[in-house]
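Hi W.,

Here's what went into the run:
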Amino acid sequence: MAIKRIAFLTSGGDAPGMNAAIRAVVRSGLTLGMEMFGVYDGYKGLVEGKIEQFTSKNVSHILDRGGTILGSARLPEFTEKVVRDLAVKQLKKYFIDALIVIGGDGTFKGGQKLAEMGIKVIGIPATIDNDVTSTDSTIGFSTALNTVVDAIDKLRDTSESHHRCSILETMGRDCGDLAIYAGVCGGAEYVITKETGFDKKAMLESLRKKKLKGRRHAIILTTENAVNVHKLAKEIEDYSGYETRATVLGYVQRGGKPTPEDRVLASRFGNYAIELLQQDISGVIVGISHNDMIHMTFDESIKCPFVKSQLFDLIEKIR
Ligand code: ATP
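Here's what came out:
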């Protein structure tokens, strides 16, 4: 039976470009004669039946907007089958043939469980820290990276004027890409992430030598939870002589207009998800690899090993 009625939701942390994905899903589906249904507030809204039929007009002028017009929510209880049963009931009530979930790893775990309950599900990776290992890039990463690089550029100005060392903490609990890519773009001396670790003693010593040689400033990038930035600032100050300040960027990284890269990626992902459903392919997550659209099963995607960013080595070479 052809897939005709498609629901879609955004879940987990919001990411710039989610709206562009929603727009592409809706417009591509309508072009193929499908009926499109937006679900508000992620799995929570699905369980509560916050579902509305979308026309082309519902998604006009949203390409350039950050956040998600559908809203997002976290529903930890979605791990419980009784709660997911309610979601399945709502999908049946609206005669939905397939569900597109836009979010990160957690969202896909929920999607996979719905797929195991007989729902046709497709995942679209959207999360600012790029922590979905089965795709080269996720929606929102490019925009968040722009925000971090902008912050480094500004910090450098003041750090250079005051002969300071600046530590900048980015998001990226499980994936250091934001800090690593921003480190390359902003000429950071060091990048500290949980997965790559760092030799604190060597770093302190090297900063001390730089200070002695008259280097005016230093920039260090780190991800959340990798290190206590305020404690590290004190240690650097005591050991190297650099006056040191730590800045935690926080939620500003989530906001803002999506970059052209994110808009293109989101539009491609959204359209590709619909093309797959048209071919009755589901139970997969879409992705991009070498600029081609790809898809793999939830299981394959979740098990995809983390590959350490090659850019990490680059930082050491061009320090
Ligand atoms: P981000 O990486 O931006 O935080 P995410 O999709 O990983 O995005 P999570 O909060 O981990 O965000 O997950 C979003 C939602 O997915 C959760 O609130 C929950 O409803 C559902 N979810 C997460 N993990 C599971 C799981 N193991 N089983 C069922 N549902 C889950």
